[in-house]
């Protein structure tokens, strides 16, 4: 199956290579089509007469001396005949974004052209070419109806819309006459709409019918449109084969939407969907998707992710799509104007950040690292980047496409010449990008073909190594199972995958019980609301993010549930067949042998406002107490000291109140709030001073912060109940009361001395 897919992809790639070779021929036909109208009759070179209303008696004469008609002379520079812009009395003017409905009105346009009396009219095959006309309309030649696109309801409202581009009408030779011939148009539509009448500036043309038919059909344009469609389907196939490369999907959708947009602007679409209200809606909706899709593709292929700006602009275009879908046609034109005016912002982002920024990075990288021992010049770096890098290829094609797009937007807003070159400009861009993307799969195809040559040899080598691997695996199993240290493995969520026999012997926990159980579930938690577990979670998350080895002291539960086992644990990530696992090794903590000879000890520390340091310090200043107190009391002393230091940091130095901490903890946002306080210039320079001394008579701890202090008396009172306040914020003092013999605060409450007498008789 894979070989078949590879062959399809490779065939598509070859097709694109062939298309590059016939590209010159396409350009030739393009030039031919743009210059096809050389000997025509332009009706705009004569007077054009316009009048509100319609009568069959007006159709066979030129109203030269009738002052009720508006005369548009041939000298007028603006050749567009949009009714909303003509100085006809009684025409309503629509305000921007108005939902007001105007009843359709009827207008008549009359002009003339002359034929030589020496021409055989029976052999004169002429056609009338109209670049764009709207809404409902009829055309008359010498008083005879030759084309009707009139679909009105009995009340005069339009039933089906006919806003058509590139209309070609055959002029029956039997209706022509030597000398002056009269062409008349009846147009019915909402005059508040900008395109009612003749929208573009292109003239009304009479010429050879076959010649005009070639101009109308624009076969080369249809060929190019289907190139976009083929490119989209081809890239969609690449995405379906390799779904990790999302940029293939994004550009495939872009190419297909570009095809839909440009196809809706051809005359061919009217033979499929005659009612233009639907074709114009599809045209607008597809147009609004193009820029977000293109920018998303550029972000993914150049930077590997979609930026916030692109997400924001995509949401804006989505709102335009929804609003256009539910709004009447006049409002859709206003929405289109909003899109045209705002498109300058993504254009700048596209040009200056996505294209130029990525290109300059590529040029700089090649200039300083691309030369073989010699630093290449600037022009050499530029030429290399354009010719051989993806950002350079994209910039070359994008500049052409962007230039064409800017021209078409400005033309649609101001000049209305009707010249559309975006499809030709994007032809360079789409084909170029498709070839760039397909080259990656051609390389993959060739690589697979080359790898298949080595596959049989590597298979033989694998069979030989399997024997050695089995031996090594057995040696590893014996080493792990025979170790006195606990050895285990975890998945990336810290769930046990394996555990050796030493873990069972030390903790008296069955190995089957551990499998798929989380590491936190087997750790000792003396205080269910202690923040120590939260500290540990923070360390584990940092370890998971950075994937750097972590050395940490952990207290494990035992099956007896009395005393925990403290181990020094090292965690590190290992890659096993492309999958990450966590390897853990725990060793017993060796106590300092000199502790038995210690008679006294004294230390002084000054720490910042980091809670993890407080946790480490509480371990350090209680580590040498084994000679003086039992293990149970040692655990409580350590926990109480840690909580007192944390209180000094939180409520003292950082000035976090009871209410603030309660609120943030209830919102599960306390650590973010704590981090903001730690960075606050008002508090960042404060420190906590800790003094510690121990001898054969007593243990003394003094903890001083730089805060304003607090009312400590409520926590020292014997009548203080174990309410929520005490459990959440006063547990340090509560623990201290239960383990220390004396607790002394200074007057302000920002300094506390804790004393434990070792000889109760003193």
Radius of gyration: 42 Å
Average predicted local confidence, pLDDT: 79
Q: Which word captures the global form?
A: elongated
Spans with pLDDT under 50 lasting ≥5 residues? 1-8, 18-38, 720-729
| DSSP helix fraction | 40-55%
The total domain count is: 4
* End-to-end C-alpha gap: 88 Å
The side-by-side strand order for the widest beta sheet comes to 3-2-5-10-7-8
Briefly note the structural class of the backbone.
alpha+beta
Instruction: Say how many strands there are.
Output: 22
Largest sheet: 6 strands, antiparallel
| Number of helical regions | 23
Approximately what portion of the residues adopt beta-strand conformation? 15-25%
Structure notes:
The protein is 48% helix and 18% strand. The chain has 762 residues and is of the alpha+beta class. The protein has four domains: 41-212, Jelly Rolls (Sandwich); 219-438; 482-588, Beta-Lactamase, CATH 3.30.450; 599-757, Histidine kinase-like ATPase, C-terminal domain (Heat Shock Protein 90). Strands 3-2-5-10-7-8 form a six-stranded antiparallel beta sheet, with no helix packed on it. A five-stranded antiparallel beta sheet has the order 14-13-17-16-15. It has a five-stranded antiparallel beta sheet with strand order 18-19-20-22-21. A hairpin with a 5-residue loop joins strand 13 and strand 14. The radius of gyration is 42 Å and the shape is elongated.
What layout of secondary structure does this protein have?
Elements: H1 2-21, H2 23-34, E1 41-42, E2 48-52, E3 70-72, E4 81-82, E5 105-115, E6 126-133, E7 136-141, E8 144-149, E9 164-171, E10 179-189, E11 197-198, E12 205-208, H3 209-217, H4 219-241, H5 246-264, H6 269-272, H7 276-303, H8 308-326, H9 329-342, H10 344-369, H11 378-388, H12 390-415, H13 422-481, E13 486-490, E14 496-499, H14 501-507, H15 511-514, H16 532-546, E15 550-556, E16 565-576, E17 579-588, E18 601-607, H17 611-620, H18 631-653, H19 658-666, H20 670-679, E19 688-694, E20 698-704, H21 713-716, H22 724-729, H23 731-739, E21 742-745, E22 751-757
Antiparallel strand pairs: 1-12, 2-3, 2-5, 4-11, 5-10, 6-9, 6-12, 7-8, 7-10, 13-14, 13-17, 15-16, 16-17, 18-19, 19-20, 20-22, 21-22
Helix pairs in contact: 1-13, 4-5, 4-13, 5-7, 7-8, 7-9, 7-10, 8-9, 10-11, 10-12, 11-12, 12-13, 17-18, 18-23
